């Protein structure tokens, strides 16, 4: 990878993937594509950026045509909860823009596009412990768009030579940018509650188990799949990547061990609960392990310690 364009650069993942890519591939060689939300200081100050609304097909063509990246990380996407509230915009961003990026990439000679998928690509009839290759009948617009992205990605390589790769990311915990548009975001918001007020009202039931991952592992998975030896890949856009799984009650217990006064209450949001209920509890990632050597590093204790340490500094608080 010599010149890399990252869409959705101001989002939760972009804000951490871009610094990691710049460290590896050079500050000037990683271009942030940003729309509406501000870039973090770290991303803004460390390299080039370009204004890019991925739903604007002409702008997309102009940007890819002028930058001429060899690799694109296409992160711009409406997450599950917000997507459900605006199907029209979801269609533009999560379906049309994916197609436009891949088609423009073929026309502009881009070599590789990374399109992250999600546990959202699974649905109610997927086994609770989800194998890599299994039933995928999601019942959300977000999930349908993720299956669309996976199938389209797998189609482009044999038909056009454009190398499209992707991993199915679990919910991601991180402290630099707080996510607010997804179903798994409680697992980040709970730390802000614990550190600022000593309490948190969770919108999912206490026993809703979901696959989760710490941001450094998510960033590694994206860079590793991009760098993987293509001749060893039998899958391409549809790899499960697993780390840990937990329920809100289990995460709250882990936080209580560090912040004994912390209290959790539950007030269920029917939309996000139904989305979470349609997703598997755990992912089996044997295929990613076999084809490109994937493995995660951060377990629950390491994640909770690191989140609390960093958020204490960021929020300038001492624990309750
Ligand atoms: C969401 O909750 O929508 C995302 C995801 C799991 O894809 N974090």
Describe this entry's structure for a reader.
The chain has 320 residues and is of the alpha/beta class. The protein folds into two domains: 4-170 and 214-240, 3-Layer(aba) Sandwich (Rossmann fold), CATH 3.40.50.720; 171-213 and 244-281 and 298-315, UDP-galactose 4-epimerase, domain 1 (Alpha-Beta Complex). Helix content is 45%, strand content 16%. The protein has twelve helices and 16 strands. The strands form five sheets. Strands 3-2-1-4-5-8 form a six-stranded parallel beta sheet, with helices on both faces. The chain has a three-stranded parallel beta sheet with strand order 6-9-13. Strand 2 (30-34), helix 2 and strand 3 form a beta-alpha-beta unit. Helix 5 (87-108) runs parallel beside helix 6. The site of 2-amino-3-ketobutyric acid has 9 residues, from loops.
Key phrases:
320 residues, alpha/beta, Rossmann fold, UDP-galactose 4-epimerase, domain 1, 2 domains, three-stranded parallel beta sheet, 12 helices, globular
Number of strand elements? 16
* Strand line-up in the sheet with most strands: 3-2-1-4-5-8
Rounded radius of gyration (Å)? 19 Å
Residue stretches low in confidence (pLDDT < 50, at least 5 long) are none
Tell me the CATH topology of the largest domain: Rossmann fold
Count of helical stretches: 12
Spatial gap, N to C terminus: 45 Å
For the biggest sheet, the summary is: 6 strands, parallel
């Amino acid at each position: 990878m010599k010149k890399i364009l990252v869409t959705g650069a101001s989002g939760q993942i972009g804000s951490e993937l871009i610094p990691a890519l710049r460290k590896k591939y050079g500050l000037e060689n990683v271009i942030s594509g940003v729309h509406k939300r501000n870039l973090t200081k770290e991303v803004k100050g460390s390299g080039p950026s370009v204004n890019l609304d991925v739903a604007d097909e002409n702008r997309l063509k102009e940007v890819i045509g002028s930058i001429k990246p060899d690799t694109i990380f296409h992160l711009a996407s409406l997450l599950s909860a917000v997507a459900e509230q605006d199907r029209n915009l979801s269609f533009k961003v999560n379906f049309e823009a994916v197609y436009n990026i891949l088609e423009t990439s073929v026309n502009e000679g881009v070599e590789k596009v990374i399109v992250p998928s999600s546990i959202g690509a699974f649905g109610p009839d997927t086994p609770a412990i989800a194998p890599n290759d299994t039933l995928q009948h999601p019942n959300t617009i977000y999930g349908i768009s993720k299956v669309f992205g996976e199938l389209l990605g797998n189609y482009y390589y044999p038909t056009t030579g454009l190398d499209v790769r992707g991993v199915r990311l679990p919910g991601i915990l991180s402290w630099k940018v707080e996510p607010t548009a997804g179903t798994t975001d409680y697992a980040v918001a709970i730390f802000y509650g614990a550190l600022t007020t000593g309490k948190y009202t969770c919108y999912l039931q206490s026993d809703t188990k979901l696959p989760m991952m710490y941001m450094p592992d998510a960033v590694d998975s994206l860079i590793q799949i991009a760098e993987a030896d293509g001749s060893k890949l039998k899958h391409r856009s549809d790899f499960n990547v697993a780390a840990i799984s937990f329920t809100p009650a289990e995460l709250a217990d882990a936080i209580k061990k560090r912040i004994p006064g912390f209290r959790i209450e539950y007030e269920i949001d029917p939309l996000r609960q139904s989305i979470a209920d349609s997703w598997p509890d755990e992912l089996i990632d044997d295929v990613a392990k076999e084809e490109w050597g994937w493995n995660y590093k951060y377990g629950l204790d390491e994640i909770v310690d690191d989140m609390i340490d960093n958020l204490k500094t960021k929020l300038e608080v001492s624990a309750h």
